[in-house]
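idk why but the lab printer keeps eating my pages so im just putting this in chat instead. protein + benzoyl-formic acid:
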Amino acid sequence: MSSPEIPFANYQYEIYLRGSMMNQRPRRPLDWQRLEEQAAATLARGPWGYIAGGAGRGDTMRANQAAFDRWALSPRMLRDVAQRSTARTVLGTPLPAPVLLAPIGVQTLAHPDGELATARASARTGVPLVTSSASSFTFEEIAEASGDTPRWYQLYWPKDRTIATSFIRRAEAAGYSALVVTLDTWLLGWRPMDLDEGFLPFLWGEGNVNYLQDPAFRALLAAPPEEDMQAAIGQFAFQFSNPAVTWEDLAFLRETTELPIVLKGILRADDARLAAEHGVDGVIVSNHGGRQVDGAIGALAALPEVVDAVGDRLEVLFDSGIRGGSDALKALALGARAVLLGRPYMWGLATGGEDGVVDVVRSLLAELDLAMALTGHRTIDDVDRSALVATP
Ligand SMILES: Cc1cc2nc3c(=O)[nH]c(=O)nc-3n(C[C@H](O)[C@H](O)[C@H](O)COP(=O)(O)O)c2cc1C
Ligand SMILES: O=C(O)C(=O)c1ccccc1
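predcted complex ->
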């Protein structure tokens, strides 16, 4: 088990103590709504719209929030919660809490230190990050910065299999311990905020570094990127995604790596069963934070049926809409093995770099510990659907 620099239980008392004894207030709002407002004020229009924005009219983003409102926690009393633990093993990796940082590309949009800051925050908190294929630093550099904390790698499956294999080998060599394959973003969703700004951050400059120095990618180019950048970028844009992939192609990944494989973007029981039949180790119930299909089901609304269909065969993780400890607890109560935090840590990054991400992560873990305790649970494994009631 990685040991976090800072224990998160009693975090709130540390904050009160510092405030009352030393007159030191937190440097940034701990309320995520206000943190988001501060990030909005910090970031330029293009990056803000890209990170905050959703697809279409934003219906799916709203559905993600509404899905949490349909469940309420139903606290139990007098259950001795003096000794507690939020620890849980996820895909064979012991973690301080069932929480990871969701793969988010091109993080230099939020802060110049980008993924390196996030990775250092991961090292300090023991909460793993999932490094995106479209990272603004190479996944080797990010691995290095994340220290001893476990880390996972997210693959945007390229067209050319030699590049896919090269990425997977690089991830294995850099110590990534699971392969997350994103299924919902072969094509970018219709994102009006980005379209209004003409903002596509990952073509020139950001998000392509993993390609430009990859030996398998370079072998496909007539001239190296240093000599013909335009052609290299064209090839990157062509290679980046492969919308023709089907379930049959998963055999290639299964044969290519021993790492646990997690499919990200599952929203239905039948797809979850197909995932199980194709020998993957986990799925992430997710609608990509409402950035892909507007009008799609709120992610939490899809979680119970996926857990019922495959929960005994593989690990079901969850993201899209987690905005605090109670949200995490609700998803865990519905059977998620772990949850991934998305946009909120980008608000920490935008407003405070590495420290900002640490603050957001510590807050989430502290709030989760409290929500667990105050609803009458000593461990995450004690939490099940009996912790919830449907709201009228
Ligand atoms: C700015 C941004 C970039 C993202 N980039 C990736 C990515 O590179 N790969 C990926 O699988 N998901 C990506 N996602 C989706 C997240 O992993 C996650 O599914 C989503 O943020 C969850 O929704 P939430 O942030 O509203 O909780 C991105 C999300 C955002 C906001
Ligand atoms: O913007 C996104 O949601 C995303 O997943 C992505 C896609 C391509 C490059 C970087 C991030």
